[in-house]
Write a structure and sequence with these properties.
One of its GO terms (biological process) is triglyceride biosynthetic process. This protein is an alpha+beta fold and 507 residues long. It is 34% helix and 20% strand. It has a 6-stranded mixed beta sheet with strand order 12-19-18-15-13-14, with helices on both faces. Strands 8-9-10-5-17 form a 5-stranded mixed beta sheet, with helices on one face. Strands 1-6-7-4 form a 4-stranded mixed beta sheet, with no helix packed on it. A hairpin with a 2-residue loop joins strand 18 and strand 19 (464-471).
Length: 507
C-alpha cells in the first residue's frame, strides 16, 4: 500500500523552462487539494471498450495531439514543503511512451473477462509515479464479451471530474458513423426556474412561498449534513464496510450494458427524469440484494421468490441507507466544447466544480416496482427545492480559506464514512464515437479511494447506458449477483410500465 500515497515532488525553484518559456506554477483548486489528501485520495478509472484490436501507435499519436497538449495532462504535481507552500501544477514535457502500457497477452487465454477484471483491480492498489503527470493508459488487446479490446485510462481526480473528461474525450473523437464529423454534444436542459410562468395575482405569492420552502429545506439539509459528519450513521448492513479498511482495500470494478431506450420508456411513461429512473432502479436492486444477504440460506438464486415477494421478506425494519451523490454545480448543466471550458473567463470551467448531497435510499420490498421510481422522484424533487449542493460547496471553500484543507477533508471523510455508498450519473456522447480510429463499444467510469464499500456510476453512451459497480470484494463478495439484481430490477420496472398500458412518447 505504500506506493499509493507517495509524497509529491519537492521543488524550491519554479522558474524551470518548458518549450522555451518560463513555466510558472498554478495552485491546485480547493476541491483538487481535497482529492490529494491521504484520507480522500481519489483516482478515476475509465474503461474504453474498442470493437477492434487497438493500434497502440495510433493511440500514442492521437494522445500526443490532444491529451499531452492539455495543461492538466502535461503538468507535474509539485509542492514547496521546505517553505510551507501549497501544492501546485507545473507544466513539463511529456514522453508518451512513459504513459502508455501495452502488456503482452495471450489472445487464447481461458477467461479474458476475468483477466481484464483482475488487471483493473490490481490498478486500484497501485499509486501514480509522481515524477510525471498523473495519468496512464493501459492497452489490453484481448477480446472480452463486450469488446474486441480494452483501453484502461487511469488519472487522478484532482486533474478533473467526469464531465471534464467527457469534454476531452469528445474533442479527441469523431462520430463512428462519419469519421469527418465531431461528436454531437450531449443534450441537457437547464432546470426550469420557479420564476418562470408565474404571472398574475398568484405569481408573487407562489415565488415567496417557494423561496421560504427552499430556505427551510436548505436549513434542514445542512443540519442533516452536520449531524452526519458528527454522529448520524447508516445502519450496519452487509454492504457497509469499515471505513478505514475499505478506503485502502483493492477494489473490483464491474459493469453491465443495458438499453437506454428502456430507461427512456420508463421516463416517458411515468413523466419523470432519467435520474429518477436510475435512482429507482438502484433502490429496487439494493433491496433485492440485501434481502438475499439477510436470507439465512445462501447468496445464490435458488429461491428467486425470496427477493421479489413480501412473503419472503427478510429485511430488518427501518434500515437507514444513504448515498452521497456527486452534484455538478456548473451554471450550465451539460458538457461544453473543450475549447470553451479551457477559456479563463468561461462560466463552465474544466476541473472539479462538484459538490455532494446526501440521498436517502429506500430499502424495502414493494409490491409495485414502479413505486421505487415514485419514491426516487420524491427524493429528487425534494432535493431540487434546496440549496444544499451550493451551500456545501460554498462552505467548503470558505473553510479551506479560513482553516486550510484539514477541516474540510475531515468533514468530507466523516460524511462518507457515515453513509453507505456513492451515486453518480454522467451524460455521455449521443452517438457512438471513434477514438483515434477505434470504434468504442462502451465507456465505463469508476472512482475509488473513498471510505465506502460501494460506488455506483451510470454512464450514457449512444443508445446504451452502462452501470459500473466499484466494490470491496471482502464486503460484497457476490458483486456479480448485485449486477444481476440491477438488470432484473430494470426489467421488472419496464414490464410494470408495459403492463400498465401507459408507455408515453419515447424521444
Amino acid at each position: 500500500m505504500t506506493g499509493r500515497f507517495i509524497k509529491p515532488i519537492i521543488t524550491n525553484n519554479i522558474s524551470d523552462e518548458v518549450d522555451g518559456d518560463i513555466a510558472g506554477e498554478e495552485p491546485l483548486s480547493p476541491i483538487a487539494r481535497i482529492f490529494q489528501s491521504t484520507r480522500l485520495y481519489c483516482p478515476i478509472i475509465y474503461l474504453l471498450g474498442s470493437k477492434t484490436l487497438i493500434d497502440v501507435d495510433a493511440i500514442k499519436f492521437g494522445l500526443n495531439d490532444s491529451f499531452v497538449k492539455h495543461p492538466r495532462f502535461s503538468s507535474l504535481l509539485v509542492t514547496d514543503d521546505k517553505n510551507g507552500g501549497p501544492m501546485s501544477w507545473r507544466r513539463t514535457e511529456v514522453d508518451i511512451h512513459n504513459h502508455v502500457y501495452t502488456p503482452e497477452l495471450d489472445p487464447n487465454m481461458e477467461s479474458p473477462d476475468t483477466f481484464v477484471e483482475d488487471y483493473v483491480s490490481n490498478l486500484t492498489n497501485t499509486g501514480f509515479d509522481l515524477a510525471k503527470p498523473l495519468w496512464e493508459l493501459h492497452v489490453l488487446n484481448v477480446q472480452t464479451s463486450d469488446a474486441g479490446a480494452t483501453a484502461v485510462l487511469k488519472y487522478h481526480h484532482s486533474i478533473g471530474d467526469g464531465i471534464s473528461f467527457i469534454s476531452l474525450l469528445l474533442a479527441s473523437s469523431r462520430k463512428a458513423s462519419d469519421l469527418k464529423s465531431m461528436p454531437s454534444l450531449p443534450k441537457t436542459k437547464r432546470p426550469a426556474s420557479f420564476w418562470n410562468n408565474r404571472h398574475g395575482f398568484w405569481g408573487p405569492i407562489f415565488t415567496i412561498c417557494t423561496m421560504i420552502l427552499m430556505a427551510f429545506n436548505t436549513f434542514v439539509d445542512m443540519m442533516h449534513l452536520a449531524a452526519t459528519a458528527l454522529f448520524f450513521k447508516d445502519t450496519d448492513t452487509p454492504i457497509k464496510g469499515v471505513p478505514e479498511i475499505v478506503r485502502l482495500s483493492c477494489k473490483r470494478i464491474v459493469h453491465r450494458i443495458v438499453s437506454f431506450h428502456d430507461i427512456e420508456l420508463v421516463k416517458s411513461a411515468m413523466n419523470v427524469t432519467i435520474n429518477d429512473v436510475l435512482l429507482g432502479i438502484t433502490m429496487a436492486a439494493l433491496s433485492r440484494y440485501l434481502n438475499r444477504r439477510y436470507t439465512p440460506v445462501t447468496y445464490g438464486y435458488e429461491k428467486e421468490q425470496d427477493v421479489t415477494s413480501k412473503t419472503y421478506n427478510n429485511l430488518p425494519a427501518n434500515i437507514r441507507l444513504r448515498s452521497t451523490m456527486a452534484f455538478n454545480i456548473r451554471p450550465y448543466p451539460g458538457t461544453l466544447p473543450l475549447a470553451e471550458m479551457m477559456k479563463n473567463e468561461a462560466k463552465v470551467r474544466w476541473g472539479n466544480p462538484v459538490s455532494v448531497v446526501i440521498i436517502p435510499i429506500t430499502i424495502a420490498l414493494l409490491d409495485d416496482p414502479l413505486d421505487y421510481v415514485r419514491k426516487a422522484k420524491a427524493v429528487v424533487d425534494r432535493k431540487k427545492l434546496s440549496f444544499e449542493a451550493i451551500s456545501t460547496y460554498s462552505l467548503g471553500r470558505f473553510a479551506l480559506k479560513l482553516f486550510g484543507h484539514k477541516l474540510p477533508v475531515a468533514v468530507t471523510y466523516r460524511v462518507a464514512s457515515n453513509t453507505t455508498m456513492t451515486f453518480s450519473n454522467i451524460v455521455g456522447p449521443q452517438e457512438e464515437i471513434s477514438f483515434y480510429g477505434h470504434h468504442l463499444s462502451y465507456i465505463a467510469p469508476s472512482a475509488y479511494g473513498q471510505p465506502q464499500a460501494l460506488t455506483l456510476h451510470w454512464q450514457s453512451y449512444g443508445d446504451k447506458i452502462i452501470f459500473v459497480l466499484t466494490v470491496d470484494p471482502d464486503v460484497i463478495p457476490d458483486y456479480k449477483n448485485l449486477c444481476d439484481d440491477f438488470e432484473a430490477s430494470l426489467q421488472l420496472i419496464k414490464d410494470a410500465v408495459i403492463q400498465s398500458g401507459v408507455t408515453g412518447d419515447v424521444v
